[in-house]
Amino acid sequence: MNIPITGRTRLVGLLGSPVAHSISPRMHNESFRYWGLDYVYLCFDVKEEALPSAVEGLKTLKIRGFNLTMPCKNAMVGLCDALSPAARLMNAVNTVVNEDGYLTGHNTDGIGFVRALEDAGHTLRGKTMTLLGAGGASTAICVQSALDGAEAIHVFARSTSRFWPRMEELTRELARSCPCRVTLTDQADQDALRKALDESQILVNGTSVGMAPDTDASLITDPAFLHPDLVVFDAIYDPRQTRLLRLATEAGCPTCNGLYMLLYQGAEAFSLWTGHEMPVEHIKACCFDTL
């Protein structure tokens, strides 16, 4: 059944640049069709400097909500009337809900990670995690994992990274707001990394290292750092199996890639806008199995 565009069709969409490659229209529009909802999802190529005027225009048009991708996630924080606890801690918004001109900013990236991990049969509650990276994806994963009950998170990143100061601040904020113990260490300290991995049950790569076309890259190259009781999650999904995941498989570790993290962050946004659950098994079959 196709849902026709009507005079009552509600608009949601994606803001950022570039956006032409996004799978979001496919999965959201198919979900609207599945439930018979009079919504449509479109992409809008919006650069950061144009975001304030774009948001004002969308408020005037009474858009129901929108997603944000780079470079607009951080800039959107100051344009919201309210922020979810996760968005406030991350200082980044990837989903906005519009209630009669009142914009509430959320960040569903971390929820996407947690639900993807659960989809693969694993939980982070009470677990110790080693997290590689301090950028946007790593920040989202760190915050949501701390909020959802991880016992400890060892973050490893480059101390020269522009993201390092923000991650230092975040570790202090998390120490004040939740019981999870979060530490930050320079990734050059390989002894500390190995020790953290020895006591961890989950390893997450939240960086772009290993993403196509540089598929031979990995922040961990020695399989001796890995152990069979370690779940290895790589937020990258192109390629489906990164060098890190290949090393993990050889070491006998359960592995997951980031494809369903993308699915579940979208599913959370869909629920926020519509009050319906995204039909994730249907979307997996028709939108993700062919990627």
Description:
With 291 residues, the chain is an alpha/beta fold. It has helices spanning 24-35, 51-60, 85-90, 109-119, 136-147, 164-177, 190-198, 243-250, 259-274, 280-288, and strands at residues 10-16, 39-45, 65-68, 82-83, 95-99, 102-106, 128-132, 152-157, 181-186, 202-205, 231-234, 255-256. The strands form 2 sheets. A 6-stranded mixed beta sheet has the order 2-1-3-5-6-4. The mean pLDDT is 95.
Observed structural traits:
291 residues; alpha/beta; 6-stranded mixed β-sheet; 10 helices
Reconstruct the topology from this structure.
Layout: E1 10-16, H1 24-35, E2 39-45, H2 51-60, E3 65-68, E4 82-83, H3 85-90, E5 95-99, E6 102-106, H4 109-119, E7 128-132, H5 136-147, E8 152-157, H6 164-177, E9 181-186, H7 190-198, E10 202-205, E11 231-234, H8 243-250, E12 255-256, H9 259-274, H10 280-288
Parallel strand pairs: 1-2, 1-3, 4-6, 7-8, 7-10, 8-9, 10-11, 11-12
Antiparallel strand pairs: 3-5, 5-6
In short:
By secondary structure, the chain is α/β, with parallel strands linked by helices. It has ten helices and twelve strands.
Strand content: 15-25%
What is the number of beta strands? 12
Mean pLDDT metric: 95
The helix fraction, in percent, is: 25-40%
Q: Report the total helices.
A: 10
- Radius of gyration (Å): 19 Å
Inertia-based shape: globular
Structural class: alpha/beta
Biggest sheet statistics: 6 strands, mixed
Span between termini: 24 Å
- Which spans have pLDDT < 50 for at least 5 consecutive residues? none
SSE topology string: EHEHEEHEEHEHEHEHEEHEHH
